[in-house]
Specification:
Length: 284
């Protein structure tokens, strides 16, 4: 029986090449994305190589994520691999309709709600893997305070992005602890600074860097190959709670290794998810 992989943000850049690579390896794919037209194009490119399913989801909306979880659980009995690939960085502060800063909602809270919502399907696989895309930008998580992640008092795009990438590692580590008894591994992967459309829009310092140094950045194909290695290599079957750079275990910041911060973030994320759920019930 073929294995099933779920990947978020599969329509461009690293996500697209990860999806294509997993399809070539024989994984059936659940493509979780917000752009149906681009996802349909990807499905045509994959063809009948494997089975693919499109699930509409905006990771910045917890209502949308919960709806996607319900759709997936109604169609699948297990998931063997979950790749939390989707992410963004925005030059200026934006707030979601649920009152959460956009970068944090998309990069951390949405993947948190998706992954925990599908925990039973991961457990059912017996040896599932979760890959969380992180970044060396987690070192830029200055003045990190869990309680202020959803509504930061000040906004600087790279610092805010760095805090979400720190959150990705903390979540990945805590998930590894909570899922270990079920044979589910959870690891964070830094794909490197990649020459893709990511962070290339706008006129800020981050966008300037991405455009100016595009020629010497990693290709999406190379980054995807590293992700696929960590997601599928037999020698990593029992490796969990690690952070990978160039497909090899690497050291993180001190904050990223904090169990206390990881637990605090988990509780904070659960509370936010419950709050948005109650908000939707009150305002149908």
């Amino acid at each position: 029986m073929r294995k099933t992989a779920l990947i978020t943000g599969p329509t461009s850049g690293i996500g697209r090449h990860t999806a294509l690579g997993l399809a070539r390896m024989g994984f059936d794919l659940i493509l979780v994305a917000r752009n149906e037209a681009k996802t349909r194009e990807l499905q045509k490119e994959i063809g009948d190589l494997v089975e693919t399913t499109f699930v509409l989801c905006d990771l910045s909306s917890m209502e949308s994520v919960r709806r996607a979880v319900g759709e997936i659980k109604s169609s699948y009995g297990q998931i063997d691999l979950l790749v939390n690939n989707a992410g963004l960085i925005v030059q200026h502060r934006q707030t979601t309709g649920e009152g959460i800063e956009l970068t944090f909602a998309t990069n951390h809270l949405g993947p948190f709600v998706l992954t925990t919502g599908l925990a039973d399907l991961l457990k059912a696989a017996g040896s599932a893997r979760v890959i969380n895309l992180a970044s060396a930008a987690h070192y830029f998580a200055f003045r990190y305070q869990t309680a202020k992640l959803a509504n930061p008092p000040h906004y600087q795009d790279l610092v805010i992005y760095g805090r979400t990438k720190l959150a990705n590692i903390l979540f990945s580590n805590e998930l590894s602890e909570r899922m270990a008894l079920y044979g589910v591994t959870s690891n964070a992967v830094h794909p490197g600074t990649v020459a893709s459309g990511f962070a290339g829009d706008g006129h800020g310092a981050t966008a300037w860097f991405m455009k100016a140094f595009r020629a010497v950045l990693r290709t999406p194909e190379r980054a995807a190959a590293d992700i696929i290695h960590v997601a599928t290599a037999p020698e990593l079957d029992d490796v969990t709670g690690r952070y990978f750079v160039n497909a090899k275990p690497a050291r993180t910041s001190g904050k990223a290794r904090s169990r206390a911060l990881a637990r605090e973030l988990w509780t904070f994320s659960e509370t936010l998810n419950e709050a948005t759920s109650e908000q939707n019930l009150l305002n149908p």
